[in-house]
Amino acid sequence: MSFSEHWLALRQHADSSARADALAQAAADWLQRHGTPDRTLYMDLGSGSGANWLHLAPLLSAHRQWLLVDNDAALLASAQARCSAGTSVRTQRSDLASQLSTLPWDQVALVSASALLDLVSQTWLEQLAALAAAANVPLLCALSYDGRLVLQQSDVDDEWLRSAVNAHQRGNKGFGPALGPDATQVAAELLRDQHYWVGTHDSDWQLNAADARDAALLRPLIEGWAEAAAEQFPAEAQRASHWAARRLACVARGELQVTVGHKDLLALPAPR
Ligand SMILES: C[S@@+](CC[C@H](N)C(=O)[O-])C[C@H]1O[C@@H](n2cnc3c(N)ncnc32)[C@H](O)[C@@H]1O
Q1: What fold is seen in the domain 5-268?
Q2: Which of 16, 88, 192, 253 is 20 to 30 A removed from 58 (C-alpha atoms)?
Q3: How far, in Å, from the CA of 234 to the mean position of ligand 1?
Q4: Is the full-model pTM beyond 0.90?
């Protein structure tokens, strides 16, 4: 599945405001106490154009190199272009669906990801949890969609649209059947099975059409949700496009507020 640089840039403001920084801080504290010098890398999976690295780098010790991993060469080039001179970042083009085990696990101090877990399957998460546990490495996974979608003032088809979108989220995004809204809960269970301490925190987008940046994100979001609903239920394509037209009109009037539920997850290895 591909993501445009424009879309990732549009969501970055909402992502930054939503993130549960208490979990990122807890990861930084854990690394201060338990990090070892032979673990030289922070590894960001599905890095795209580098939003997660940009957010986390100031919170974590600068003594390690970042490895940004994605299968999209253009997004990785864009991430590399955002690095200031002297920043310790390198990129690696890999297909995470098939090459997860080939990454340099023995050098990794922290695995991070943002907006990735909801795309992956249970089988893939089982592999991630097993590899991370074998390497005794913490994971910080931000901004996984959790199925909550609340629009104010309500429209007669909001609930239909939400359930259609959530069904669409469970389609194959390149990793097998996606966990979509269940991703954080399943990841937490799998990591606890691997003896991790796991904490989760809501990291919801709170979007208000009266704000120009939020309105710019809401327009493609609404169009994308309607497309997903129509793809899921082709016989109801018109219902989806009518819903989108009503909701886009609300955005144009600056009158729509939307909560998009996300979760952040931190998993810390048990002391050895
Ligand atoms: C929703 S975007 C999130 C990007 C970035 N983490 C952020 O928060 O802006 C998902 C990212 O996963 C990457 N991705 C999707 N499938 C992948 C795969 N099979 N292998 C590697 N990267 C993949 C996409 O290229 C994209 O950059």
Answers
A1: Rossmann fold (3.40.50)
A2: 192
A3: 27
A4: yes
